[in-house]
Amino acid sequence: MEKSPLCTCRPGATVWLTGLPSAGKTTLARALAERLRGESRRVEVLDGDEMRSSLCADLGFSRADRNVNVQRLGLMAEVLARNGVTALVPVIAPYAADREAVRRRHESSGTPYLEIHVATPVEVCAERDVKGLYARQASGEITGLTGVDDPYEAPEVPDLRIETHTRAVRECAATLHALLAERGLA
Fold first, then answer.
1. Would the pTM count as exceeding 0.85?
2. What are φ and ψ of residue 73, in 5° steps?
3. pLDDT digit string (tens) for 50-75?
4. Buried b / exposed e along 6-18 (16+ C-beta atoms within 10 A)
5. Which of 20, 42, 64, 126 could be bridged to 147 by S-S, CB 3.0 to 4.6 A?
6. How many CB atoms sit inside 10 A of residue 82's CB?
7. What pLDDT was estimated at residue 9?
8. What is the C-alpha R_g of the chain?
9. What separation, in Å, do the N-terminal and C-terminal C-alpha atoms of the chain show?
10. Where are the alpha helices (DSSP H) in the chain?
């Protein structure tokens, strides 16, 4: 019987970027994706906002719906990563238990998973207010804004904590890239 050739594909991984709204998660993910693509890596950015308008359009922002949202994204990321894609997932994912369930899913399939805390203070996020959420919350137009009047459980021991308010995007992406390289994932 002839042996099949060894797979020459590179390992995939899920890089889960969690943090408050306007923390810089998506900006960082897109900068890292560009760098990885420049190295001929297969990369997908599963942006939380984009996924909410398609894959998760049926969900609201209750705790139960947030859990379902995170688990759907976690499953999609794990399938991609298991098949050699680096899945970058910039999503708030406010509850530690939901993120831990995603980590366990990855561990059970032997798929690399990194949790990155984009640790930007709420005051800085409110100044950035990329989507106008903080202004809408302050005016009473919306409630349940993560980190303001709804909880955000910051990771206690993330694989990496990045403070986007103290460093340039390019530098933050380089730090994250270095972690991937250190783990044999870049």
1. yes
2. -65, -40
3. 888 888 888 888 889 989 999 999 99
4. eeeebbbbbbbbb
5. 20
6. 18
7. 67
8. 17
9. 35
10. 25-38, 48-52, 63-82, 96-109, 122-128, 133-138, 169-182
